[in-house]
Amino acid sequence: MEVVIAIAIGVLVAAGVWLVLRPRTYQVLVGLSLLSYATNLFIFSVGSLSIDKEPIAQAGLPANLENYTDPMPQSLVLTAIVIGFATTALFLVVLLALRGLTDSDHVDGGEERP
Amino acid sequence: MTDWPGSAHLIAAPVLLPLLTAALLIGLADRSRRTSVVLNLLSTLGSVVLAVALLRGVDAGDGPGALGVYMPGNWPVPFGIVLVLDRLSAMMLVLAACTALAALLFSLARWHRASVHWHPLLQLQLMGLNGAFLTADLFNLFVFFEVLLAASYGLLLHGGGAPRVRAGLHYIAVNLLASLLFLIGVALLYGITGTLNMADIAQKLPHVPAGDRGLLHAAAALLACAFLAKAAIWPLNFWLPSAYAAASAPAAAMFAILTKVGVYAVLRLWTLCFPPTAGASALFGGPVLMWGGMITVAFGAIGMLASQKLGRLAGFSIITSSGTVVAAISLDEPVVTGGALFYLASSTLVAAALFLLVELVERARRLEVEPPLADEFGPRMPMFHEMRRQDVNLDDQQVALIGRTIPAGLAVLGIAFLVCMLVIAGLPPLSGFVGKLAMLTALLETRFVQAAPGSGAAWLLFALLVASGLFAAIAFTRAFMAHFWATQGRTVPVLQLGELVPIVLLLAGCVGLAVRGDAVLRYTRAAAAELHAPTLYVSTVMRAQPVPPPAGAGAGAVP
Questions:
Q1: Which one has a higher pLDDT value, B93 or A104?
Q2: Residue A3: how many CB atoms within 10 A of its CB?
Q3: How far apart are CA B192 and CA B204, in angstroms?
Q4: B165 to chain A: nearest residue by CA?
Q5: Which tops the pLDDT comparison, B367 or B89?
Q6: What residues of chain A lie within 8 A of the CB of B184, using their CB?
Q7: Which of A14, A69, B108, B158 has the fewest C-beta atoms under 10 angstroms from its C-beta?
Q8: Topology classification of domain A2-51+65-102
Q9: Cβ-Cβ contacts under 8 Å for B269 (sequence gap 6 or more)
Q10: A-chain residues within 8 Å CB-CB of B186?
Q11: Is the pTM of this model over 0.95?
C-alpha cells in the first residue's frame, strides 16, 4: 500500500510541477490543484497508513498506532483541503480577470513578441 | 502580567479584535462608509494601544514572568494550541499595528473609496499578522499565514486594472507553491516528532534517532524555503519588486511588514529548533541563511541602483533589509541579533513610509506628464469597471475633494524623501544608522576582537552592510535629483493633509527610535538574548497549566 500511495503522490507531483511551469494560466491552475492533491495525500500518509482502523482509541486496547490510526493528520488534511480549495478558487477568479483584461491566457498577459 | 482579573486573556485580544471588527465591517459592506471608517479607525487604534500595552507588560517582566502563555482551548500544552507572547512577538505586534494604522490613515484620503472591501481586508490582514506573531503551534502558524496571505491577495488587487491583476496572479501562484512546501514540511515534522507545538518540537529534536535525521533536515529545509520565499531571500525574491510596485500605496505600505513575517518565522523556528545545544543538528542551515542573506543584500543593493521607478526602488530596499536581518541572525550571536532587530523595526517603518511617499511623488509627476489614465481596456471587464471609473473620477475631481492643500507640497515631499534616504542608507543621525552601528560594533566585538572561527564570512557581511548603505545612498540621491530638482515648469503636486499625516507619523517613529535608541536597543538585546537561549521559552511553555474548571461547575457540565 505504501508503494501505491508513493507512486500516486510522485505522479501527481511530477504532473503538477510540469503544468505549473507551463505558460498558460489554466495549466498553472490545474498544476497547482494537482500539487495540492499530492500534498494532501502526503499529509494523510504521514500518520501511518493502515486499512480498517478507526481513528478512535478502543476501550480495553492500549492507545498506540497498532490499534488505532492517528486522527491528527486527518484533521490537518481537512484544514489543508479547505484552505487550498479557497485559495485555488481565488486564483481562478484572478485568472478570469486577467483573461478579460488582456484578452490572453498567457501568465504574463500576452505573448512575448520578438 | 496578571495585575487585574482577565488580563491573561489580553494575549488573545490582538487576534480577536481585528477578527470581530472585520466581521462587523463585512456586514456593514457599503451601507455606510462613514460608519466603516470610524469603526476601522477605532479598532486599529485599539490594536496599537493593545500592542503597546502588551509590549510594556512583557518588558516589565523578567525571567519566566516575561513570557505570556495563553491556551485558547484550555487544553494541556502539547495537545492544544498555545499563544505565546515574548519580547520579539510583542515588538512585531507593535510594528504591525503601526503599519496598519498608517495604511488606514493614508487610504482615508482617497484609496478606501476604490472598493468596499478595503476595510475588512485590512483588518483581516492585521489579524493574520498578529496571529502569526503570537502562535506557538506550527499548524496554527500555517493557518494564520494563509489568513494573512488571502487578505494580502485582496489588498494587492485593490483598485483593479490589468497591471495589478497580472502582478497579483504571479504573487498568488508563488505563494500557493510556498504554502504547499510549508504544509509538506509541517507534515514531515509531525511524522518525525509526533507533535506540532513548537516548544515540544524543540524539546524532542535532540532525541530524534540518527536514521530520521535526514528526514528532519529535509523538513526544516522545506519550511525554510516557504519562509525565505516570504522573506524575499535570493533566489526566491523575483516576485517581490513587481508585485509591490503594482500594489496601491496603502496596500504596499501594509506589505512592508509582510516580508518581515517570513523573517520572523525563520528567526523564531531556527533559534528554537537548532540552537548550538541541539546535538547533531546544532545550527543546521546556518551557512545557508548566512550566504543567502548576504547575496540578498548584494542583490537588493544592485537592484536599487538599477531601478528607474520609485516603486521598484522601494521594493529592492525591502529586499536589502530582510537580507541584512537574515544574514545577521545566522551568526547566532545575541548582540548582533539585538542590533538586527532594531534595524528590522526601523526598516519596517521607513519602508511603509517610502511606499506611501512614492505614490505622492509619482502622482505629482503623472498629473503633469500624462492625464490620468481613463479605462485602458474599455468596458470589457464589468467586474472592475465601476471601481476604476470611480478611481478616475477621484483623480479628475481631486480639487473638489480636498479640504486643505499644502502650499509647499514639493518641499514637504522632498524633506520626507530625504529622511527616508537617511534611514534606509543608514546615515546619521536617524534610526537606520543606530541599527547598523549596533550590528557593526557587535560584529567587531564578537568576531574580530576574539578572532572566532568563521570570521571570513563576518568580514564579508561587515563590508556588505557598509557597501549596501553606500549603494542605497547613491540610488536615492539620483532618484531625488530626478524627481525634485529636474522639475522645470512643473505644477505643484496636489496633496491632502490626510495623506501626509501617516508619512510624518511613520518618520517620526524612526526619529523616536533614534532618540530613545538606548532604551530600544536594551529591549531588542533582551529579546535577542531570549531567542538565543530557548530553554526558557521551552520550559515556560511546557510547564503552562490549563485553567481549572470553576469550583461551582456541576458534574453534568464537565463530561
A1: B93
A2: 7
A3: 10
A4: A98
A5: B89
A6: 39, 42-43
A7: A14
A8: Helix Hairpins (1.10.287)
A9: B198, B223, B227
A10: 43, 76
A11: no
